[in-house]
Specification:
Strand 10 and strand 11 form a beta hairpin. Helices cover about 25% and strands about 25% of the residues. The radius of gyration is 21 Å and the shape is globular. It is built from ten helices and 18 strands. With about 400 residues, it is an alpha/beta fold. Keywords: Oxidoreductase. One of its GO terms (cellular component) is cytoplasm. GO terms for molecular function: oxidoreductase activity.
Length: about 400
């Protein structure tokens, strides 16, 4: 399906979804499942070629904000059932998430998060450094104060999720137009009435922006402020490890953001470079690895000397408070958006697809997402920074 480049797009649609990543695919699937006709997904490259292209995506419900906990928890359940609905193997590995904490303040913050999570049915708990080391034998406990662990979390393959959702959507009649670039939106009064693409214009009744790191540009076309900026994130793969690596949680050194977990026959290593400039460049730069190795020498010494075999660079779509933008434009009521997930999009995509479906159908979503409206930045109040950010 990723090669289905259209010479033309349909002349009209009830819904045009801009973006063929996990958010666009989930939204298309949930709308089609609800019986919404005439849906077109427009994607500038191949499906999952943006942020969703990352090799492995974490899935978790360990957050500091109740709304993020709910979106993560509901999505986890959807991923556990993905082989039934929509019906695809997404290589879900429920290994847990392990946050390593090296200060009393971090431990206190995560304890508060665990209490919130437990109240919402998430089985997270605080553990001692020694138990963290048993779960992840690579760790040095030197300097660790505590750790937060949830056995229900883990990781899966974003590309397989996108193909699973998009395939089911296509079978339900959704048109997926890849290699199709959006160049402009037509508005009349308070409505979006058309989408201009590299393969023709689509007259439409509703536009849903799920364009990830490119969402600010789409918003500008409609006169809607979507404050999303692109930031490059890099990761690397170790060469195959023999004997095989132990099965470990998705392990995160919270202070440095260094993280690592199993990947096929080795490990995946990642870290957010604090000096990374905003931009759409996704060139992988091996020098970046030295940042990870510097942290690993102290926190997981064996990882510092492991041979690597290449890596990957992709884009985070970051908002000022590291929370998503989900909602309906106040100025253009038929312009909906789900973007700016700041690294949490994959793990929240099933629940957000449901929410956007319900917003479109004008019915009550399972949770109130109004705090995630893009309008929160216009008023300068009501932002709720998410603390459990990597």
């Amino acid at each position: 399906m990723s090669s289905s480049a259209f010479r033309t797009v349909p002349a009209s649609a009830d819904v045009v979804i801009i973006g063929g990543g996990v958010m666009g695919a989930s939204t298309a699937f949930h709308l089609a499942e609800a019986g919404v006709p005439n849906i077109v997904v427009v994607e500038r490259g191949d499906l999952a070629c943006g942020s969703s292209g990352k090799p492995i995506g974490g899935v978790r419900a360990q957050f500091s904000d109740p709304l993020n906990i709910e979106l993560g928890s509901r999505s986890l359940r959807a991923y556990q059932e993905f082989h039934h609905r929509p019906g695809a193997d997404i290589r879900l590995d429920t290994v847990g998430y392990l946050f390593l904490l090296d200060s009393a303040q971090q431990a206190s913050d995560f304890e508060a998060g665990v209490r919130l999570q437990n109240g919402l049915g998430v089985p997270s708990r605080m553990i001692a450094p020694e138990e963290a080391q048993r779960l992840c034998p690579y760790l040095s406990t030197d300097g660790l104060v505590a750790a937060a662990y949830s056995p229900a979390d883990g990781h899966a393959r974003p590309g397989l999720v996108v193909q699973g959702y998009a395939g089911a959507a296509a079978r339900a009649g959704v048109t997926v137009a890849t290699h199709t670039t959006v160049s402009g939106l037509d508005t009349a009064g308070d409505r979006v009435v058309g989408v201009h693409t590299s393969h023709g214009r689509i007259a439409c009744s509703t536009v849903i922006c799920a364009a990830g790191a490119w969402s600010a540009r789409i918003g500008e076309m409609a006169g809607v402020n979507l404050p999303v900026r692109p930031v490059k994130r890099q990761l690397a793969f170790t060469a195959p490890i023999a004997p095989p690596a132990p099965r470990i949680p998705f392990t995160i050194d919270f202070s440095s953001t260094a993280y690592f977990h199993n990947s096929d026959d080795g490990l995946l290593l990642g870290l957010a470079d604090p000096g990374q400039q905003d931009g759409f460049d996704t060139t992988w730069t091996p020098e970046w690895l030295e940042l990870f190795r510097t942290v690993a020498r102290h926190r997981a010494p064996a990882l510092a000397t492991m041979e690597t075999s290449g890596g990957w660079a992709g884009l985070y779509e970051v908002t000022p408070d590291h929370n998503a933008l989900i909602g309906r434009s106040g100025e253009l009521p038929n312009f909906l958006y789900a973007a700016g997930f700041s690294g949490h999009g994959f793990l929240q995509a099933p629940a957000v697809g449901e929410v956007v479906r319900d917003l479109y159908l004008e019915r009550e979503p399972f949770t109130d997402v109004s705090p995630l409206s893009a309008d929160r930045f216009r008023h300068g109040a009501g932002t709720r920074p998410e603390a459990h950010v990597v």
